[in-house]
Amino acid sequence: MLAARRKIIYANFAKIMNTEDMREEHRRIKIFFPKKTLSKRVDKVTYAENGTIKEATSPKDIVHQIQKDTIQKYTSTSNTPLMHEDIHNDLGNYAETDYGQSIFMGQVPIPQTYPYWTKRMIQKVQYDPIIPEVPSTLTEDEVKQVWKITKENKASSYSGRYNAVYKSMTTDPTLLSILTLSMNLPFLSGRPYDRWTTFLDIMSFKKKDSIQVNTLRTIVISEVDWNAAGRVFITRKMMKQAERLKLLPPEHMGGRKNKKSITGALIKRLMIDNSRLLRKPLAIISTDAANCYDRMVHKYVSLACRKWGISQKVMQALLQPLNKARHHTRTAYGDS
């Protein structure tokens, strides 16, 4: 019985590896014979220098100009109050210092030297005894479920680990237990795997007729097991608890079950119609922060999630790869 099961597992792995070898061969063909149209891969960009528009066509120049632009995105919070030297020394990268822990628990007052709105922000994310801590480990059922809904055909990370391999591991009890242990170790220790700190930036065109470097869309591909674990801790554990404890305002639509963007648009439309029918004044202000995902200070994210039940070690393991990230850029000519 065991021998028959092993044969099935080996056959499945052989099939997966054969498929991935074919995919890699096809990818290499596209690298050496890139399309000349602006379809999927970047093969040239334009950029501004000394008031003039220049064009980069060589692989080295393209990557240089892209990374020069993306570095500004990844460091856009460096001058915010929470990143000032005195506050940064107090709280550390992820509010992991003893003093940061004391502030979080409300054991010491927030220093008067902090800017007023910074103090108000920190007060909002201090420890709340009413909110229980969510489990800091992943169960086999949670691991199995998160890989079940993960698509196989997504691009693999820089290490070359494929979603299909992880999905196949969940079909065998022994491999599932090994995978669960592997995914839990970083969150029990607060120390992520080194490979989690390497990211792959895939560049695509946001506007079909524009090859300006500052209009390119950056899609960041991370290690799939780090990403999957984050989805379980944040989406399934923390957000579910927040829903149960009614911590989310009713107008919050993102990442919530049975809440869709079309619902928010409908509510807005109904408010406008209601204002017209009742002849009452109405003011609508758009407060959408441009590229807000690039502008989240890690220590504040850590405090906010810890207030809602995520442990300090889990937040360190989730945020450290972003803090120590090494980015490689993919263009039509391959990976930098």
Structure, described:
With 336 residues, the protein is of the alpha+beta class. The chain has one domain (38-249, 298-335). It contains twelve helices and six strands. The protein has helices at residues 2-32, 59-74, 85-91, 98-105, 116-124, 140-148, 163-169, 173-189, 224-244, 261-278, 298-307, 312-323, and strands spanning 45-49, 52-56, 198-205, 216-221, 326-331, 334-335. The strands form two sheets. It has a four-stranded mixed beta sheet with strand order 4-3-5-6, with helices on one face. It has a two-stranded antiparallel sheet with strand order 1-2. A hairpin with a 2-residue loop joins strand 1 (45-49) and strand 2 (52-56). Helix 6 crosses helix 9 (224-244), helix 8 packs across helix 12 and helix 11 (298-307) packs antiparallel against helix 12 (312-323). The chain is globular and about 65 Å long. The protein starts with a helix and ends with a strand. The model has no long low-confidence stretch (mean pLDDT 82).
List keywords for this structure.
alpha+beta, 6 strands, 336 residues, 12 helices, 4-stranded mixed β-sheet, single chain, two-stranded antiparallel ribbon
